[in-house]
């Protein structure tokens, strides 16, 4: 067993998914990820890929290696590449939608069926 594989077997359950992803990268892949430090760079990187029409979901590592993705794959890849969450908890994320949700509910409540 290679040292990298032994490490993953030993510490894999204690590592976060993001850490395992970065640990799995080759040096060249790590350099690519280091350059993807702004949303515009990530978007350009994804735009240069082949668009997948397959009904297959690729993990970010596969997207990076195969250079193929569809919309969902690209979104997950971008989320991993950015790595800085906008909201600290799931509750904060849900509350961020509250204003828009309440406005929509008021709009539907104020209209009547024709």
The helix/strand series, from N terminus to C terminus, equals: HHHHEHEHHH
Residue share in helix: 55-70%
What strand line-up does the widest sheet have? 1-2
Radius of gyration: 20 Å
What is the SS-derived class? mainly alpha
Query: Average pLDDT, to the nearest integer?
Result: 79
Give the overall shape: globular
Uncertain residue ranges = none
What's the N-to-C terminus distance?
A: 70 Å
Strand content: under 5%
The largest sheet, given as strand count, sense and whether it forms a barrel, is: 2 strands, parallel
Number of strands: 2
Oligomer: single chain
Task: Give the helix tally.
Answer: 8
Structural commentary:
The chain has 114 residues and is mainly alpha-helical. The protein has one domain. Helix content is 65%, strand content 4%. The protein contains eight helices and two strands. Strands 1-2 form a two-stranded parallel ribbon. Helix 4 packs antiparallel against helix 6 and helix 5 crosses helix 6. The protein is globular and about 45 Å long. The relative contact order is 0.09. The model has no long low-confidence stretch (mean pLDDT 79).
Task: Give descriptors for this structure.
mainly alpha, 4% strand, single chain, 114 residues, two-stranded parallel sheet
């Amino acid at each position: 067993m290679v040292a990298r594989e032994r490490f993953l077997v030993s510490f894999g359950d204690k590592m976060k998914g993001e850490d395992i992803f970065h640990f799995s990268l080759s040096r060249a892949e790590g350099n690519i990820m280091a350059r993807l430090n702004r949303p515009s760079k990530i978007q350009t990187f994804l735009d240069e890929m082949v668009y997948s029409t397959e009904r297959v979901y690729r993990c970010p590592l596969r997207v990076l290696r195969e250079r193929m993705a569809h919309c969902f794959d690209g979104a997950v890849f971008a989320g991993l590449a950015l790595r800085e969450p906008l909201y600290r908890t799931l509750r904060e994320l849900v509350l961020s939608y509250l204003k828009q949700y309440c406005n929509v509910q008021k709009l539907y409540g104020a209209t009547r069926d024709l």
